[in-house]
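#data-curation
PF: Archiving a pair of folding outputs for the training set. Convention for this channel: one message per protein, sequence first, structure tokens after, nothing in between. First:
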Amino acid sequence: MEEITRKRPGVWSATVEGGASYSVDIRLAGRDVTATTCNCPYDGAVCKHIVAVLYALREETPKRRGGRRKAPKLHFEDMLQKVNLEELRDFVRHQHETNRDFGDVFKMYFADKDSAINVTDQYRTIIRKIIRNHSNRGFMDYRQSFGFSKEIQPIMQTAYAAVSRKNYRDAAIVGRALLIEVMPIIEACDDSAGNIGDIIAQGIQLLQEVAEADTVSPELQSQLFDFVESSLSDKTWFDYGDFGYEMLAVAECIALKLDQERYLRLLDNLLKIHVGKYSDYLQEHLKKLKIRFLFAIGRTADAEKLTAANMDIVEVRRSAVQQAIDVRDFSKAKQLVWEGIRIAEGKQHPGTVQQWEEKLFDIAKLQGDTGTARQFAKKFAFDRGLNPKYYQEWKMTYPPSEWQTVLESHIQSVVAEEQKRPRKGSWDREDHSLFQRLSPVFIIEEQWQRLLGLILLTPV
């Protein structure tokens, strides 16, 4: 145990030496442990470092009650109140002389006091230093990512403190510096713990909060847009997680307040840049964003024109179908769906075909077209085994007085099909096939005698 400190009543912090130095925080409520954290890579609930600190705290607890009690130690806040200004300045000077990193942190925290400080370069230098400390020849492994994440968090806290003070300039500087320096790591790290990705996501979220703020200057908004625009020319942003799409959300937020045409030009430029064998998803996403944005800014005619030109995109066609349904133009909606089915069949996408058929089923129900609804409900009920939801939908298309006749006809048609179907081998037996197809029906209809008959006809 290197150090253990009581921050305030019930809150303890310690540094524990193991294979490396690890930071442990513990919260106590009386004799109960309410929370523990350790930055070691152990994946379980409580690591050995936490246990070591708990043992140390137990040793510090007086073994005997009563007697003379030691004067309580001053907590940090109490001590701070007792220190005068000159003493505090002397302490800061001493820390600056003995701890170079402290000077960097101090200057960054009070950077708004000196316009000559290039805050962006300062932050980038600090972040690069942290990266070097937690990587090996440019590669950051699983364990190193934990220490890196922990050391970056104070910088993030500084940025969010700037947001709370409405100092959006400094917050944006931190966000940009983080993303510039940390994004390249994603290609050279083991981020199975998600630490690097989380830092990048936090940096983007920081920019999003700045973009959404009502009092951000147009100049800063334009600078943020410049940063997003230049960053997204690198496909890496779209190759790892949703970072590129989250950055586009920042740009869209700014564009709605500043320059709508600039966002549309950004989307068009990205559509030209990001092409190739594996760019289909990104291309479709960018087109969907453009259509949505055009509708949002009231350019309905342009949005509808772009929609018509991109009907091969499932989500675009689905939106057009829903618009037709909303105005009860069922004929147009069905035409769009059938075209979608033909496209999906041509691409050999059976899942998409079923989605479109389910939409036809929904339209049939809205129209009161019982025959079509019945046809699709039965198809979906028996497509893959038995689907109880669609089975009940199929059943509900008949009056109770007709159902038993319909059900019996279905059972007999299954039996006839299995009797006529050519067998593929000794393993493909009629009794097994009948059991697989009819036992779920007998169960849902509670026809136990017929189910028992199937079981007896199907030897193990």
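PF: Second:
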Amino acid sequence: MPSEVKEKPIYAVAAAVQLPTVSDSEFEASLAELRELAKTLGFTVLRTFIQKRASFDTTGYLGIGKRQEIEHYAAHEAGCEIEAILVDHEISPSQARNLEKETGCGVMDRTMVILEIFHNNARSRAARAQVEIARLGYMAPRLREAAKLAGSQGRQRSGVGGRGAGESHTELDRRKIRDRIAELQLEIVAMEAERKTQRARRQERQGLASVALVGYTNAGKSTLMRALTGSEVLVANKLFATLDTTVRTLHPESVPRVLVSDTVGFIKNLPHGLVASFKSTLDEALDAALLLHVIDASDPGFERQLEVTDTVLAEIAADVVPRLRIFNKIDHVGDAAAQAECTAALRAKYPDCVVMSARRPDEVALLRQTILAFFRQNLVEAELFLPWSAQQLRGEIFAQCEVLEERADAAGAFFRVRGESDSLSRLREQFDLVS
């Protein structure tokens, strides 16, 4: 039997400039996030180079001394080939080009790293289209800068003004990008319309309530999704494991039936183009009756992550949707005493929150009851009469209502039920038609 071929490790270094307005804790949290992004993309980060500056160096992001330090490390100390410098900010093409030239290593800024992860993980047609729009949007300004550089060099060589051949070629590329973005946007509009129609039909047909899981990437949303729905959804300890919206029914099935959807995770400094491009992916949050805001209780920086989620939800106008804060991964917070102390502190600061672990069935069951209580607060009790001649509709009653009591006489069956008023009205109409 042939032995497994191990993938060759890809080595990188991280680099970041700390500006005076950024606190040490915020700076360290951002760097830790960059290293997690690198891990998701398949990089092994060997070393992190940091520099405190009043502003970014306009020529190469880092100061010349730090650039020389990276060059020396890559050439003489690393002991392996450094494939890339991962920069914890979005930098200009000229900064990236100069940094690459002086260090001898490829350069990827934070935005490019995130775009590559999205590109690798997108599965559905909608997600792939959204990612392509974001990548093209990232490329367009870089082509403009390349055009300026080509024009400047062309004038220096020829001694005359006007556009060089390189600039004309760049203009052609830019036009192709604009055309492709327009084409993709039309596709997305069509897919959104189709998806909304399907969702409306599904909810009208089944009377389904809807819940959307939102929160920071890697907060445990997919694990909670699987626990609530009993479905086999991808669970991976990496950032952006879920890009495509997954929709499942709350398990065991309830009255009313509840749809649970997972959404793409949020992240600090998510490129604005991606927020816009992934708006349709986050539409589940807009359409939901209840948001489950999942937060990693074991992460020391969870308050910053909570703020990021709040900000993004406000950007897509989902901040008006009722929300339940769920502090997940409490089982990762030390021993039992530490967990109890953390739980008490969280409940004191966020009185209506749920503190739990998605891996503890009893706590998942309590969350399920909390979700059902939210949707049952507007249910009404009523009595339905089903004549014996219409017993084929008996299943509809159990599907759309909670049956509290059943009795029968010579004419038919009587059901005392709890359900949504609209569902009860539709059932009565059906019974009238067949009786």
